[in-house]
Amino acid sequence: MRSFTNSRDVLAALEDDEPQVLVSDIRIAGGSGIDLLAKVRERMPGLPVIIMNGLFGPGQCGQRVFRAGAFEYLPKPF
Question: Does domain 18-75 have CATH number 3.40.50.2300?
Fold first, then answer.
């Protein structure tokens, strides 16, 4: 398992690694989790991406995340 503090480092790591799953918060330095999801989908369309969110209710945000292609959406707190 690896962790990153910004989307740029995540995307750089994907150049050399093929993870089984990617988990991201909706808010991440260097962009949003949804922006990161779109970039990951371009590079690795089959990679399951899970987006977490603690700021908004599950309704609208969850719908946006699923429309963007997320495998799962996890509202916080768990």
Answer: yes
